[in-house]
């Protein structure tokens, strides 16, 4: 009788050898820099929203007036007229021309003498209908023959 031969068994590797699918890596957490960046943007937006309805440092809402400017019933803007290169006189009316200017100054000599006005520091609306003298700087325009950024206005009559 023959004895069966026992083959020695070699231990099999736990992981199969050959091409296999990679083991999925755990998902990466959002980098701390991104979290900080998003937080800064949100806090800034919140502060801006909160401050939008508050008066500015000069006690006014909207655009800030220039320090050293005065405002009265008959005059507004910087006291020093020599600060400005240009001046004009006429009756102040509301409305610009094709989006240039918020107001215009009607002067003697017809429509070609009209000065279109805008101002970042003065509320020109309070002088509408009055004969005024304005001081300011001429700025470039496409439609207006003369466009001025007004820094001072004074009622003359």
Salient structural properties:
alpha+beta; rod-shaped; five-stranded mixed β-barrel; 157 residues; 2 domains; OB fold (Dihydrolipoamide Acetyltransferase, E2P)
Give the arrangement of secondary structure elements.
Layout: H1 32-51, E1 69-71, E2 75-78, E3 86-94, E4 103-106, E5 115-118, E6 131-139, E7 147-155
Parallel strand pairs: 5-7
Antiparallel strand pairs: 1-2, 2-7, 3-4, 3-6, 4-5, 6-7
Commentary on this structure:
With 157 residues, the chain is α+β, with helices and mostly antiparallel strands. The chain folds into two domains: 29-64; 69-155, OB fold (Dihydrolipoamide Acetyltransferase, E2P) (Beta Barrel), CATH 2.40.50. It has one helix and seven strands. A five-stranded mixed barrel has the order 3-4-5-7-6. Mean pLDDT is 76; it is low at 57-65.
In short:
The chain is an alpha+beta fold and 157 residues long. The protein is built from one helix and seven strands; from the N terminus they run αβββββββ. Strands 3-4-5-7-6 form a five-stranded mixed beta barrel.
Query: Assembly type of the shown chains?
Result: single chain
- Tally of DSSP helical segments: 1
Give the % helix: 10-25%
Strand order of the largest sheet: 3-4-5-7-6
Low-confidence stretches: 57-65
Basic shape: rod-shaped
N-to-C span? 140 Å
Q: Tally of extended strands?
A: 7
At the third CATH level, what is the topology name of the largest domain? OB fold (Dihydrolipoamide Acetyltransferase, E2P)
Radius of gyration: 38 Å
CATH architecture of the largest domain: Beta Barrel
The overall pLDDT, averaged over residues, is 76
CATH C-level category of the largest domain: Mainly Beta
- Amount of beta strand: 25-35%
Q: Total domains, how many?
A: 2
Please describe the biggest sheet, giving its number of strands, its sense, and whether it closes into a barrel: 5 strands, mixed, barrel
SSE succession: HEEEEEEE
